[in-house]
Design brief:
The chain is α+β, with helices and mostly antiparallel strands and about 100 residues long. It has one domain: Dimeric alpha+beta barrel (Alpha-Beta Plaits, 2-Layer Sandwich). It contains 3 helices and 4 strands; from the N terminus they run E-H-E-E-H-H-E. Strand 2 and strand 3 form a beta hairpin. It is globular and about 40 Å long.
């Protein structure tokens, strides 16, 4: 199944907003089950979150967009911007070790 990455940038000075919505965001990510390959915050040099990187498996771009659109960080305006793009996991892909 194809992989899709979401690369998002938080609104300026958005740490408090992010933390307020974080429990709902984590619940959403948990609901994705094995469709979610990995996710985590993008950080600045002080280790403060400034955005998000997440990768999911989805049948197509429409499904990926629908799944990401349900994320509370998107629905509640934590992000200033985000992009969803098809992604190919080539290097250090655990399913392709030794290939």
């Amino acid at each position: 199944m194809p992989l899709y990455a979401m690369i998002a940038k938080d609104k300026p000075n958005g740490v408090a907003d992010r933390m307020a919505v974080r429990p709902e965001h984590l619940k959403h990510l948990d609901s994705l089950g094995t469709m979610l390959l990995f996710a985590g915050p993008i950080q600045d040099e002080q280790a403060q979150p400034t955005g998000t990187l997440a990768v999911i498996e989805a049948a197509n771009m429409t499904e990926a967009q629908d799944l990401f659109a349900k994320d509370p960080y998107i629905r509640k305006g934590v992000f200033q911007s985000y992009e969803i793009t098809r992604w190919n996991w080539v290097i250090n892909n655990p399913e392709r070790r030794g290939q």
